[in-house]
Task: structure prediction
Amino acid sequence: MYEYHDFYKKNFIFKIIQNDLKNKTHNVICTRFPPEPNGYLHIGHIKSICLNFFIAKFYKGNCFLRIDDTNPTTENIEYIKSIKKDLIWLGFKWDGKIKYSSNYFDLMYNYAIELINKNLAYVDELSIEDIKKYRGTLSTAGKNSPYRNRSISENLKLFQNMRLGKFSEGKMSLRAKIDMKSKNIVMRDPVLYRIKFQKHHQTGIKWCIYPTYDFCHCISDAIEGITHSLCTLEFQDNRMLYNWILKNISIKHYPKQYEFSKLQIEYGITSKRNINLLIKNKIVNGWDDPRLLTISGLRRRGYTASSLKNFCYHIGITKQNNTIQLSYLESFIKKELNKIAPRAMAIIRPLKIIIDNLSYKKKIELKVPNHPYDKNMGYKFIYFTKEIYIDNLDFSEKEQKNYKRLMLGNKVKLRYAFVIKAKKIVKDNNGNILYIHCKYYKNTLGLKINKKDKEVKGIIHWISCSYSQSVLFYLYKTLLNKKNINNTDNILSYINKKSLSIYNGFIEKNLLKEHQKKHFQFEREGYFYFDKKYSHKKKIIFNRILSLR
Ligand code: ATP
Ligand code: MG
Result:
C-alpha cells in the first residue's frame, strides 16, 4: 500500500524527526492532515497527505484527519464527504475518529478568556478596514487601536456579549495584545475571534463567534498531541504567533510547526479559490472535471492512486518553491499503464472502408494479444469483415509525397490483419466522403513491414463495423494557456478555450465486458479510462488520460 523511497526519507523533515527521537524530545510521532472543508482536495494536498501519513506510518506513530472548520461561511458537508472519499481512495487511513476543529470551540473560548485575564487580548471596535489601516506595512510600524487599553473586566464583559450575539458582524473582534510595532506583521495584534451569524455544519447555531485560523490551528494541534505540525511556506511568518499563543495559554503540549513548499504544476491550478472560480464561470463542469488537478478530477481522468502517490514521493519535500512539469506527473501514470493496460483498437474519427473482394457473409477471425510484452494478459479474437472503420486522419484525399497512410492507389497494412489498397472514394451530394472502396491482399497476414518497404506505406489501426460499439471520446488539453500561474494572476484571462474536444467514435465490441479494470491503451491514440460515473447504456464515455506522443 505504501511505497517507501529511500531518498524521500532523506528530506529535511525526516531529519528533524530523527533528531527529536534520538534526543527523546518525543517518543511517539503524531502528525495530522488538516484540510479546510471549503472545496475538494487537489494534487497539492496529496503532497501534504503523503508526507503526514508516511511519517506516521514509518515511525509507527499516528496521523489524524482534522477537518479545519472555523469558517462556516465557505464550508459544507459535501466537501467533508469528498475529503474522506479521496483519502480512502488514495489508500490512507487516519488514526482514530475524524477530528474537527469545531470539537474544540468550548476549549478555545476558555483559552481566549485566559488571554483576556492575562491582559493579553482585548475586544476591539475598529472596523475590518480600520484594522487593516492601523496595521501598517512592511516598512512602517502599526498604530495602537484606541480600544487597546480597556480594562480586563470590560474586555471580559464585551467578549461574553460578543458570544451572546449582542453585537452585529464586523462591530467587534477579539485581538491578541502583542506588539503593533513588531517587524513581523502577523504579530501586530492579530484577530483571534470574529462575529459571524452563520449556522455551522457541526455546531449548528451554538456559536456566533468563530476563532481565526491562527488561534484555532495551534490549539487544535496541541489538544491532539501533534508533535510535528507540517504546513506550507506561506505560514512561515505565522509560526511566531503559533508559538506565542501556545506559550501564553495553560496548555501542556507544545507542537512545533515546520514549513515546506507548495506543489505547483505547469498549466495547473492548485488553489481551491481558483478552482471554484472556474466552476462558477462554467469553464469546467464541477470539482471532478477531468481537466482539473483535483483528486476527483484526476481519478475520473484515469490517474491511479499509486501513480499520484509515487509522483509525490519522487518530487520530495523541500523549502524551495518550484513548478513541476506536467510531463513529469504524466510520466508516472504512463509508466504504470504501459505495464497493466490492455491494448485495443479504437477509432476516434471514423471513416468507413468497404473491402471489395470480401463478401458480406465472410468474417476472418484474428488472434490478437492483449498486451505486446505481457503474455499472461492473454489473447482475444477480432474480426476482419467487409466494412471496417479507420481513422479519418489516416486517409488523405489530396495526393501527398511520402504520405505514410492511406491514399488513393496507396497500400497500408491494417494492424494484426491484411494489407489494403485504396481504389475509389464515394461522396455524398455535398462532397463529403461516405466511404472508401479498398482491396485486401490475402497473403499479407503476419507480414512484417519495414521502413524500407516502398510498397506498403505504414500500419494503421481499424475496427470491424459489425464488431464495434459506439462511444464518445473526450480528448483534453490543459485548461490554461499559461505555464506558470502566479498568485496574483486572474486565471480567467488565461483560459484555453480548446481544452475539451468530444468525438463520436467506436471501440471493439466486447472490450468493456472483457476487462475488469477500465484502463486501456488504444493503439496509436493514447491511454484512456472509462468514465463510469457519467456513462450510461446509450452514452459510453472514455476520457483520454494522455496521448502516446
Ligand atoms: P487552497 O489554497 O487550495 O485553499 P489551502 O492550503 O488553503 O489550499 P487547506 O485545506 O487549508 O488548503 O490545506 C490542507 C493542508 O494541505 C495544509 O496543511 C496545506 O498546507 C496543504 N496544502 C494545500 N495546498 C498545498 C499544495 N499546493 N502543496 C502542498 N501542500 C498543500
Ligand atoms: Mg485555504
The mean pLDDT is 95. The longest strand covers residues 419-427. Residues 43-58 form the longest helix (16 residues).
